[in-house]
Design brief:
Length: about 190
């Protein structure tokens, strides 16, 4: 049974890397960001609710997010395990997850803040295939917004690192090398 969580700041490569790990281990990849975007596109009640928060740059309320994740991980296809990308994002979500599905391993994709900023300044996500592309963005505007999201990560998500460290589930992986190198290190930890 593998219930793997990916943690790391925006731009660390969580989406790309966790999808690759999911394909290799043949366990579902569950991304809260993708689930919310799909729900918004389908204009479901949940999507409409989530859109209110996302449009303001806020987290979707825990009650909604926890219920959504619970619904997904309790599906039959997750019987052999799952990979979570973007959840938990604060201590309250981590505690909620513990109440319905205990994680087995936590992978922290670690990068210096400056590298995060550089990567995010040039990224675009395809709405259809979810692939992330890089463009040469202008250096001026976005960094301020990016810094805000990184600050939110530090304040709300970083405390989870200690939470899982205390449970001896945390594996810190340097996320600055190439995807192939990062994957090799992750498989050494997981397999
Ligand atoms: P990013 O990490 O760059 O913000 P994501 O695709 O992970 O992008 O998430 C997009 C948005 O969806 C977030 O800004 C947030 O509003 C919402 N979201 C994603 N995951 C969660 C979560 N675990 N709890 C609450 N809101 C979330």
């Amino acid at each position: 049974m593998m219930r793997v969580i990916f943690l790391g700041p925006q731009g660390a490569g969580k989406g790309t890397i966790s999808s690759r790990v999911s394909a290799k281990l043949k366990i579902p990849h569950i991304s809260t960001g993708d689930l919310f975007r799909d729900a918004i596109a389908a204009q479901t009640p949940l999507g409409k609710e989530a859109k209110k928060s996302i449009d303001q740059g806020k987290l979707v309320p825990d009650l909604i997010t926890n219920a959504l994740i619970r619904e997904h991980v309790e599906k039959k296809r997750c019987k052999k395990g799952f990979i979570l990308d973007g959840y938990p994002r604060n201590i309250s979500q981590a505690k909620s997850l513990d109440s319905f599905a205990l994680p087995t391993q936590v992978i922290l994709l670690d990068i210096p803040e400056q590298v995060s900023i550089e990567r995010l300044a040039g990224r675009l996500q395809c709405k259809i295939c979810k692939r992330v592309f890089n463009i040469n963005a202008r250096e001026d505007d976005k960094p301020q917004v990016i810094k805000q999201r990184l600050a939110a990560y530090r304040a709300e998500t970083e405390p989870i690192v200690d939470y899982y460290k205390k449970q001896k589930k945390l594996h810190r992986i340097d996320a600055t090398p190439t995807v192939e190198i990062i994957l090799k290190k992750i498989f050494r930890v997981l397999c």
